[in-house]
Amino acid sequence: MPGISTRHLVRRELAEQGYSLLRAQEIDIDDDLRESWLSLSIDFADLPPDEYLPGDGKYRFRRYGRFRFAPGSGELKPLPHVDYFQSADINRVTGGTIRKFAPMLEGTFGNAFLRELIRFDFDQFPLSLEERESVWEVQAHLIRVTASAEEQGYPTPEGIHRDGAEYVSVHLAERLNARGGDVSIYDNDKRLLASFRLEDVMDCYLFHDASLWHQASPISPIDKLHQATRSILTFDYHLRSDC
After folding, report:
1. Residue 95: which CATH number?
2. What is the number of domains present in the chain?
3. Which pLDDT score, from 0 to 100, does residue 90 have?
4. Environment class of residue 87 by beta-carbon count within 10 Å: exposed (0-12), middle (13-18) or buried (19+)?
């Protein structure tokens, strides 16, 4: 039995509209994996700063790593760390720039919850049999955004953008003292399709990045005497023949 499951018709929604919003209470996680999640969540407190923010912003922190994923066997093999790149046509702020993000920690690569979540998300995608038997590269990103009374935090400083993957999943890992952070999904002509807010830990959305655009609004503190925090765990799924 899978360690993570849902009765929500995610695959149908992805096939019909290109995105699906899945709330935490709709996801069943076994007890052993919940322990692994608690271990993983500690990593968000020690993320290095993102050095590529416009205006020398100091509000975003991140690590990322890559896996070779063989869906047929479920094998997830860590890949060597490389610099991160998006083209300027999908990211108008940092696209075209080679970004040197800190690598994901060795223990994170081996975290049972993270590995099972990658498999769970993949299983929701409306793929052909050939695609399900192909090799994929999965990029995993741990991202924390903070805000204060003096500086808002921008989850997506690039605004409306694509990640450059086939499918993407975004899971809320932490939300403290924060207002805002509303997610908006757009069609290929950048017409708004939906807006929603991830409120509870493990609220998530999955979408076909190759045909949709997305962004998240800035966050600010509810109590201006304390910092606001919004952290996400996100996976980019790339169909590969060379990894």
Report:
1. 2.60.120.620
2. 1
3. 85
4. exposed
Q: Which amino acid is at 146?
A: T
Interval 178-204 mean pLDDT: 97
> What is the rounded average pLDDT of the residues 47-70?
95
| Alpha-carbon Rg for the chain in angstroms | 17
- Cβ partners under 8 Å of residue 175, min gap 6: 181, 198, 199, 200, 201, 229, 230, 231
Report the share of the chain in percent with pLDDT over 90: 89
Tell me if 178 sits within 8 A of 222, measured CB to CB.
yes
Euclidean distance between CA atoms 204 and 198, whole angstroms = 7
Three-class SS state of 12: helix
CB atoms under 10 Å from CB of 42, counted, come to 10
Helix, strand or coil, per DSSP, at residue 50: coil
Instruction: Give the structural domain span for 200.
Output: 4-240
